[in-house]
Design goal:
The chain has helices spanning 23-39, 44-52, 57-66, 68-82, 94-98; strands at 101-102, 110-111. It is flat. Helix 1 (23-39) packs across helix 4 (68-82) and helix 3 (57-66) packs across helix 4 (68-82). It has five helices and two strands. The chain has 114 residues and is mainly alpha-helical. The chain has one domain (19-114). A two-stranded antiparallel sheet has the order 1-2.
């Protein structure tokens, strides 16, 4: 087989399949997308922008199927419920790092100044 042609017997070849779904399944998928991004710390505007952007094909297809009002309601509900639990990890400011107390495993406590 040439390099660019997929081999039909190759079990590792990527195959996409479209499955029929109902409006209920589409609505449930909208909740899954909205909840996932709300838990990652995005606000309602940020999550809604994912649905309106054609780059995010799955979310955008849901937006087209359900409509703007339905998706906005789902996003606001998910951000209200799950948006408050998001945490963001940041490095400590340099001022704080200078005053850290380090615990050695082989001896007494020591500070950063040594």
């Amino acid at each position: 087989m040439p390099y660019d042609d997929p081999d039909p017997t190759d079990p590792q070849v990527l195959v996409g399949v479209a499955l029929p779904s109902s409006e209920e399944a589409t609505r449930e998928m909208a909740y899954v997308f909205a909840e996932e991004f709300a838990r990652m710390g995005m606000d309602a505007h940020g999550v809604l922008s994912l649905f309106t952007n054609p780059f995010y094909a799955g979310a955008h297809q849901i937006y087209q199927a359900l409509g703007a009002d339905a998706v906005r309601g789902i996003v606001e509900e998910c951000v209200t419920v799950f948006g408050r639990t998001a945490a963001r990890i940041q490095d400590a400011p340099l001022v704080c790092r200078e005053n850290l107390l380090m615990i050695g495993t082989d001896g007494p406590l020591m500070t950063n100044d040594k």
